[in-house]
Amino acid sequence: MLFTEDFLHYIWKFRLFERENLQTVDGEELEIFSAGLHNSDSGPDFHNAGIRIGETVWAGNVEVHLSASDWQKHGHTNDGAYDNVILHVVYRNDAQLFLPNGRKVPTLELQSRISEALYNKYHKLVFGNQSFIPCENGIATVDALTMQNWLTRVLVERMEKRSANVAAALALNKGDWEETFYQFLAANFGFKVNALPFELMAKSLPQLILAKNKNSPMQIEALIFGQAGFLEGEFKDDYPLKLQKEYEYLRKKYNLKPIESHLWKFMRLRPQNFPTIRLAQFAALIVQSNHLLSKILEIKEVKALRSLFTEIKVNDYWEDHYRFDVQSKPSSKNMGDGSVDILLLNAVALFLFSYGKQHQQQYYISRSLKLLENLPAEKNNIIADFVNLGVKIETAFESQALLELKNNYCNYKKCLQCGVGNKILKLA
Hints:
This protein is of the alpha/beta class. The protein is built from 17 helices and 8 strands. About 50% of the residues lie in helices and about 10% in strands.
């Protein structure tokens, strides 16, 4: 048989071996009360196991190896952490082992106790040549409850990892939640293509400066377009000329340095997504909502959260412009539902989760997950492939979880650590 030690861990953890007439290799009767807790750190593989050997009940650690001789190869003989091992579980018993006190290490050999059907399913799952995910031929058979429970777990894992980025930025901003949210929100206004220049612009323009000018939409717009590097050169229209004049004054007042305008990308973007339009929308949001994160923390209804973004109104100039000095057909420049969904997903839901985690308040974590349940699933190649396998995906809660599943479990064939993989194997 071809398998890794992880497979034996899995077999032991869920006791998926033949347990009738169970004995140690020395012929002593063996009964298992508890397999113990799987240990992912150094030391024996399972802690707090409970077993009976002969007439004696034992509580302690269990070590698992492919071969008994691996005990010596891994240096356990001279490691005190293994002196209280109560059972050595191996696939093949090829060596006799003794503890420092002279007691022989009790050993259970599983070579003849693993079903061929379970092994074949495991081998096909982990060593097969599936093009998308290892369980692509079985994932649609997994019951809804198992799938939902596992997706909830991996979604939380994803949010916790993303929250680490928030925590790092928060530390750089000296614990200022509003400033940190402002920077993350700005980056998400760039919608991947222009995320970097948007983030650089926000970091070059502290929210405190914007707050000092919150009563003047023209000054807010001048500061944002100016720091984005779009107010350099000569203009014909009155609006950019006014912005330019206002910015020159504010630039000197606050000793500001704009980012390079060449960082912004226009190519292969729909005009509605041009950075100039996104900057205009961002400016309108800043004008409308001071202390935005505080408002978001207070708002309980998803509809009200959405309205923060859908109700912003850009300067009238942009009704018939996508760029300065270039007139176009009149069209609405309000944020579309798809754009708002992305901001709610990548900024609002993330910060609700991060805030709850940092302050140990489950209320905000629950609100974050509820928000994801009320957002539509993203559309991308990975999600489309899951749908083609028969997986039902309707919400961002599900799509975000499946992205985490694919990228951090399926891609590394961690089927034995996956709730979906476990369920498929147990159906063997």
